[in-house]
Amino acid sequence: MKKFDIRDSIFEAVYKYFEKNKNCFFLTADQGSFGYKLLEKKFPSRVLNIGIAEQNMIGIAAGLALQNKTVFVYAISSFLYSRAYEQIKLNLCSMNLKVCIILSGPGLCYAPDGPTHYSLEDISMLNNLPNLKIFSPYDRKSSFLAINFFAKNNSPCVVRCDKGKFFEQINSNLDCAEIIKGEKSAILSHGFFVNYFTENTALLKKNKIGLIGLNKIKDFNMKKLNSIIKNYKNIFFIDESWRNSSFGIFLSDLLINNKFNKNFKFFSLKNNFLKKGGSRIEILKSNNLDIFSILKSIKNTIND
User: Fold this and answer.
1) Same domain? 119 vs 232
2) Are strands 70-76 and 185-190 parallel, antiparallel or unpaired?
3) Sign, Cα dihedral of 230, 192, 11, 150
4) What's the start-to-end Cα distance of the chain, in Å?
5) How does pLDDT run across 195-220, given as a tens digit for each residue?
6) What mean pLDDT is predicted for residues 293-298?
7) Is the pTM of this model over 0.90?
8) Is the dihedral of CA 241, 167, 110, 147 positive or negative?
9) Whether residues 159 and 45 fall in one domain
């Protein structure tokens, strides 16, 4: 299976949009990347570094959008959604403006940088806002589909932008896809975890557990998911959120409302502040969210 840098894939999609459309701007809160440098070099008059001023950046984006410009904004996830939540809610969502928020480093992506950079409740907070769409791409194709969806529509959008080499999935799409076919049980996840479980395909297949990847997690395509999970008995949702902020809570309610007659359980981070640094996997392991702990939890749940 091929691998592509997930962040470069998102920026490649933006770059291609800029090549075809002159009526667009890219704003950053002093956050860079390889893809950003290419964009800045090619389109210097339309790529602006606002500085570490996330609230101001959203205000500028709203002003540009009101002038019928398509706008992308880019900053570290934990700083952008928390510092500028009011501006995202009122300036963008309440006015339904065409601005794409690229959240750099969701979940524990920036684990070595410590707790200030952990983005553990972004989906929970942003999922509350009307008009806003949220994507959590897990490969190059799903990254392009997320950016292209935003480009073709006239509403605000969030794209969670991880980093590192991610496997390219054959079945990836805009909504949800069966990545690994299982028997009675399947894991449901998005973003980083889809890639993490793909790296451990042999273990999943050994335990006859399937994998379903989500990309568009708001507005959620329940019909598409139902068509995939209809043959499974047990569904386990995994994400890098505090338990009370997990998308699993929303998903559980959605499944109940749709008269879902499967066994459903979600696993997430412990509901306390993570004050220790370390690698992403080390932190996941300390929260029983590494592959071996997850498989053990699934086995225990099925046997209860």
Assistant:
1) no
2) unpaired
3) positive
4) 36
5) 999 999 999 999 999 999 999 998 88
6) 97
7) yes
8) negative
9) yes
